[in-house]
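Following the same procedure, sequence and fold were stored together, as reproduced here.

>
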Amino acid sequence: MEAGEGKRRLYRANLARREELMMQKNSHPKLFPGDIVEYPRNKFFSHFAIYYGERDGVPYVAHLTCRDSDTKLLLYGRALRSEVKLDPLEMLGTKYKVNNMFDEVHPARDFHNVVKRSIDDMMGREVTFDILFHNSEHQATLFRYGVKKSEQIDKIYEHIMPAWKKLFEEKKL
């Protein structure tokens, strides 16, 4: 093995270890009721929830899910019988981080007087999950800020819109 190849392999191993340590560092942050909790799912998408607090010493999050609905298969990015559920924090994953992404733009709403009541009111009610217009990130930002936003979907639109614009201009769409 050449010296250059060994250095590259060592560099890649160190980089992977640093990424692993960074994830561990952010893996169990201090949570406060009303925080948005992000669970990375893959390279592109994450699942989002709101930290609800503890029940009998177990931390819980509220999140939009279609896990127990009859609509197991998302049809055109939609699940008609989704709902907001309260689940133990680590039931959704052991790697998570706080991502209060819009705190500098939108004030967080009061947890006990507004957010908790909204969550309690939504639990058990059917909600339509829509990947583009009402996903778990939309629901989490709606609870925390009173505004539906999804940075994940905004990033997708950044890539899709130029292609659509060209098709519109060419009158192919």
In short: The longest helix spans residues 3-27. The two ends are 54 Å apart (CA to CA). The CA atoms of residues 39 and 92 lie 7 Å apart. DSSP finds four helices and six strands in the chain.
